[in-house]
Amino acid sequence: IVVMAGAGMSVAAGIPDFRTPGTGLYDNLGKYNLPFPEAVFDMDFFRNDPTAFYTLCKELWPGQYRPTLAHYFIALLHQKGLLLRCYSQNIDSLETLAGLPKEALIAAHGNFDSATCMDTQEKVPPEEVREAVMAGAEACYALNRRYGGLVKPDIVFFGESLPDRFNELSLRDLQNCDLLVILGTSLKVYPFAGLVNLVKPGTPRLLLNREEVGEELGLMFGEPKSADIFVPGDCDAGVLELARLLGCEVELVDLHAKESRRLAEGDG
What we know:
Layout: E1 2-5, H1 43-48, H2 51-60, H3 69-79, E2 85-88, H4 94-97, E3 105-107, E4 110-117, E5 123-124, H5 126-135, H6 137-147, E6 151-155, H7 164-176, E7 180-183, E8 205-209, E9 228-232, H8 235-246, H9 249-267
Parallel strand pairs: 1-2, 1-7, 2-3, 7-8, 8-9
Antiparallel strand pairs: 4-5, 4-6
């Protein structure tokens, strides 16, 4: 099984997705005075004024949110030897917090696990970046001065190349999978969205999402002889039903409850 994970998977964790009208991040970035919402991930805008991105980092930095049932479902697939790889658009690192090993995950759009000075290419300890981000804009500017250029977590901005592992493994993984599960993504951002077309003809593609997407990519739901299946609803409800069909519903619920307690005790 290969899983494609989008921002919809983390909505139940309290992290808004990007594109849902009214509640998505792009609809709620007005306070940052951006020329257009996507500018928060635009390199030219970042170099001109990094404040908006640093402020968004403070809101999204890992440690403030907990994995959802869907995150633990992916970890459970790995534990059972069923997961070939998880390709995630998400930058929240909740997959690894749920117990998925890093070798089983490709964070296609990067995350907060590493950071780089854009001008010197020097690696910056992410804990230093986190401390500056949490302290506010002036601390971020002081960090930049200390490293001799703009510092940012290794999150992929528009126009930047995706991580090498994405290009090295995606074709082989998708060609070798028996089932593609697509969780909570609009399939609007490339090259990530193009993964759906790398599977061999006839491979089942299961979309668990609030709305039907991907028709322009060739996904054909409800068509005769099509192996594409759409299950409407939120990701947690979808994976719970899928776990029931796989015979591991109780195991999934127990894993989620046990790990949620452990993380809550760690907070205490």
